[in-house]
Specification:
It is a single chain. By secondary structure, the chain is of the alpha+beta class. It has one domain: Arc Repressor Mutant, subunit A (Orthogonal Bundle), CATH 1.10.10. 58% of the residues lie in helices and 14% in strands. The protein has 5 helices and 4 strands; from the N terminus they run H-H-H-H-E-E-H-E-E. It has a two-stranded antiparallel ribbon with strand order 1-2. Strands 3-4 form a two-stranded antiparallel ribbon. The protein starts with a helix and ends with a strand.
Amino acid sequence: MLTLASDIEVLARFGRALADPIRCRILLALREAPAYPADLADALGVSRSRLSNHLACLRDCGLVVTVPDGRRTRYELADARLGHALDDLRAAVVAVASDRTCTDAETKGCCRP
């Protein structure tokens, strides 16, 4: 059972990162391999400025890190265990609620059958 405030903060931070589909896509892409921002933007079909904002969010959350590579900067997951956690979380959610669709958090219910 989570009782420490820091445990709750860590999970909430991870949840905020996963709350945006673009950030999810970035994390899943980086799970496969480190990448440069321009390559990520092209692969995900988003503008470089939009990608930059999401990368900054993920970096501030401590989920991704930058690695200088000459005159370029490469992004990668801060810890390989994050990739495993993403796989496990996706598999668990699919296993228990494959017939549900999440709606906007502003509505009365989060997930509906």
